[in-house]
């Protein structure tokens, strides 16, 4: 033993050295970055860098503002002829490979689909359909119908013409009782005349849909709502010449979805490595024009290697960038960071009732719930410092939310509404006035009836800073004397979190408050989240005023945008008074792009399309 | 509260093992360790670390350590924070202490519990033999087939909340087979020996024979196996926590500290969060192994003499 | 021999059935299902409930289990809800990846471990032995996930010698030379990190075996007869020591499989281990059940394989 002792000591020493070196190596690199600045790179980025350099703060303490980010790449050089581009699909799981809009479920698949297929109607920056897409539409308010006309030059990748029948076919498949996806059930389907007859098998086609000719058809609705024109209409066609012979139940597992997906988009699938990557080639017959790029490769990359891949030019664009990695990498010299406000918000919800399975609606019972007192809820809003959370954890790339319509819908978000901000004194005052006082002297307030008040807070695990943020909120509430505890003393994994909060209708009575997040759809209508018969109305809040406002927001009058804005302003204000939930953070999304990328804009309705996307040099720009 | 429970349990279990040991075995072990400097240092290190982390964590204000401080995120090591802070502004040194305590506690608990089950199972099966042995071995075979890491992961996702104690139980349920098998084969041999047969004819009860004759004779085997199991169990715990199927962050363990390294920024720029935990795991494993090897040699030597 | 194998396989049947039952019950106790993740205001909750009903997820577990058993009997392990494809097809793809990873790991374990063990045993207590022993000493104590993480970071990130994820570069024609090379390139780093830790057992075993054999009578006799040293080693010592290593092959496989969970996760390598973790998180039960069964089966077959090899290389051990 002792003879080989020396060897052992030697190795312990070497290992220690290795670890220390490794650690220092990483550290050095971090320190070097800023000094590398003045080196090469295009003019635009240098300017940007200088701005940042002036402040000369530790990257971790730097506060950023999403308004400073552009949504378009600054490289305005002419794209070279051809060229290939690598797109990093950032995901810690593989992609499922359900490559058809009518069947897909997960975000990774969506990221691939947007290259090979597209919605037949385009949207503007407010997510309202326009007439610039592969099809145009005409709404007839008198007859409650919309007529769609497909442009003449739109073809499937295999050269077949896209027909009205293809589009109608997608309706017939999704509404089919055998359909295996989850797309049915929204107003765009349920409002169609006679759809129930079709679902029950009484008719072979949907009675409310009339096909006029090769390229046009009309859908008759029971009534029109503005939601239909902001994402409600199903705008993805399904090629009948391919899927026509496949039984509906077997479509999603067919080769036409998994192996040889097809669409009308600017790129066609060349080959697929299941779960890992998809190689695309340009669709020369794309209706908007021949794409600039010859090839696009979409490849799954783990969030932990995004930075590495960007630096080495392994990918030119990515589907998302982890915001928490931005401060350390904001100086990356071969990419430009684009950014915009994300269509999402984080919020704290108060349980005010439960789900009535039979009536399929919420059972609002504020008097029986701990959180039933609106003053208590208001005080809890005053007690938390969301701006500091955003600044400290996200370097300003998330910031305090105000209303329940996020600024990603600029037309509808009302920023003039006054909302509670961090004022612990105010919180204490409200609680004192409402009768929540510490009568037992244990440091925590009791209810006005003198009963002990322990508030159970459910929060989701996952995401890097989930735990500290949840704990921060707990601490903040404890600071104003409210005994808030994490439910079961820990965070809950995604599935069990939503299970207990009430997805599925079995609300766990132990949950008093919870922190969730919504990613909002293109349609601004919030009734899917806050309507009295929405399962996702987890607070289980209901009131006549709320119902009325939500109803008016999708009424026929609301086709008038100004009227709709007023209604939703009123609703946002009403929610700030009632506080069934309150938004904590709005979010931004960052999309780095290699400096060689041109004609790229991440903004909705920017008018820059993927076929224009190009590169200005053969090889990606690589970080020094 | 669970900690106290844990410690009591530990003491309880330690007592049990001590009772089983024959004094001669203990002295031989002790002598061997004194002889082997590395083993001695390792043992001292283990004892001091255990005492240290259990002691300090009694004084340390746990609430304070896992308290989120928005204005001290990612601090590098300093006088105030000896090993810096993590992304919640929480002191790494404190977490390391508590984490080591939790990891060690689980390691000890799982080792003792699985040892206990394994010994009882093995001795009963081996001593009685025949049909009893047959049935018990089928049960054992079945457990051996289970892909245990996967089953533990499935279990952990079901149990909504668990502490050091219940987590150890879950791990134990799928980690007792190795030792049971070993003990059984030794017990099979032991019972054929003359002295057991003699006692049996003299009318001693099975219980008495097992406790006074069979067990003392396989003590050395038990001690050695359990020591080496300790290292393995600490490794499994940290592995599970690393994958995210161990403890929540509010109950730090060495594995949770290590799992922070899956974030590339932490891996590259914030060594203070994960390197100390990595080094500590390594040293703990080495120390346990050094002691185990020394014990093994002692046991072998005794065997030869016997 | 054949009788033995058949009997062993028959014994495993009830084990597998029991295992499947347990996994099934456990899976049904997990909170949520594959549709719980569909929390999206654009999807109606009625549509989700309808799917649940249609897929039979609202049935009590024993009904689901018997449906499942009937399917398995016909070779159908059900559908993966998440991937919308038959579980068998899905796992088959991943199994091939894991198979190659295991193969390359085993290759490195033996290609590096056997020479190291022989060298260390032949020149025991020399410097070279001390270095190797030191290495195995450390290797024993290093958890595989720490090691994999550090190697990924050093060789993947810092030096950029190896890809940091996936199993093959995109756009290559399956079966072409480039494709195969790319596959190997992706396998090298994860395979090596498994092997460098995994070879510890082999090296230690081989070393002590050789050191023991060296002192055995027949070696001393051979030497006394004046046989050259090299010949003594080649003909007598190595053959006796290396053969049993082959017998561990089966167990080695079992070990590799549990190690693959960590390594595949760290290297984002799309194999069965990574699939298992994803399926747990996303509640793709049919996949979880099939994978646990498959891993169980692999463990059984590994043990069986070891026993068979052992009986071949060592005639003293007879299998009954």
Structure description:
The complex is a heterotrimer of chains A (624), B (306) and C (320). Chain A is 28% helix and 18% strand. Chain A is α+β, with helices and mostly antiparallel strands and 624 residues long. In chain A, the strands form 5 sheets. In chain A, strands 13-17-10-16-14-15 form a 6-stranded mixed beta sheet, with helices on both faces. In chain A, a hairpin with a 4-residue loop joins β2 (135-140) and β3 (145-150). The two termini of chain A are 49 Å apart. By secondary structure, chain B is an all-alpha fold. The radius of gyration of chain B is 22 Å and the shape is elongated. The termini of chain B are far apart. Chain B is built from 14 helices and no strands. Chain C has one domain (87-313): MetI-like fold (Orthogonal Bundle). The termini of chain C are close together. The chains are: A alpha+beta (624), B mainly alpha (306), C mainly alpha (320). Chains in contact: A-B, A-C, B-C. The A-B interface holds A 1-2, 5, 8, 12, 15-16, 19-20, 22-24, 26-27, 29-30, 60, 304-305, 307-308, 324-325, 328, 385, 388-389, 392-393, 461, 464-465, 467-469, 471-472, 475, 486, 488-493, 496 and B 36-38, 66-68, 70-71, 73-74, 86-90, 157, 160-161, 248-251, 262-265, 267-269, 271, 275, 278-279, 282, 286, 293, 297.
Any low-confidence stretches of chain C, pLDDT <50, length ≥5?
Answer: none
Largest sheet of chain C: 2 strands, antiparallel
Quaternary organisation of the protein chains: heterotrimer
Q: Would you tell me which CATH topology of chain C applies? A: MetI-like fold
Provide a count of the helices of chain B.
Answer: 14
Strand order of the largest sheet of chain C: 1-2
- What percentage of amino acids of chain B are in beta strands? under 5%
Number of strands of chain C: 2
Overall shape of chain C: globular
> Helix-strand pattern of chain C, N to C?
HHHEEHHHHHHHHH
Write the layout of secondary structure elements.
The complex is a heterotrimer of chains A (624), B (306) and C (320).
Chain A: H1 5-35, H2 43-55, E1 84-90, H3 107-116, E2 135-140, E3 145-150, H4 164-175, H5 187-190, H6 195-199, E4 209-213, E5 216-220, H7 240-243, H8 255-258, E6 267-273, E7 277-282, E8 295-301, H9 306-311, E9 317-318, H10 326-329, E10 335-350, E11 353-356, E12 361-364, H11 374-382, H12 386-394, E13 398-400, H13 424-434, E14 454-459, H14 466-479, E15 483-486, H15 494-501, E16 513-519, H16 527-530, H17 544-553, H18 561-578, E17 581-594, E18 597-598, E19 614-615
Parallel strand pairs in A: 1-8, 1-9, 14-15, 14-16
Antiparallel strand pairs in A: 2-3, 3-5, 4-5, 6-7, 7-8, 10-16, 10-17, 11-12, 13-17, 18-19
Chain B: H1 2-20, H2 23-35, H3 37-59, H4 62-65, H5 92-128, H6 130-145, H7 148-158, H8 164-173, H9 177-192, H10 194-201, H11 206-243, H12 254-259, H13 264-269, H14 271-305
Helix pairs in contact in B: 1-5, 2-14, 3-5, 3-14, 5-6, 5-8, 5-9, 5-11, 6-9, 9-11, 10-11, 11-14
Chain C: H1 2-29, H2 45-55, H3 61-73, E1 79-80, E2 85-86, H4 87-122, H5 127-141, H6 144-158, H7 177-214, H8 217-224, H9 229-247, H10 249-266, H11 272-282, H12 285-313
Antiparallel strand pairs in C: 1-2
Helix pairs in contact in C: 1-12, 4-5, 4-7, 4-10, 5-7, 6-7, 6-10, 7-9, 7-10, 9-12, 10-11, 10-12, 11-12
InterPro entries (chain C): BPD_transp_1_N, MetI-like, MetI-like_sf
Protein name (chain C): Peptide/nickel transport system permease protein
Family (chain C): Belongs to the binding-protein-dependent transport system permease family.
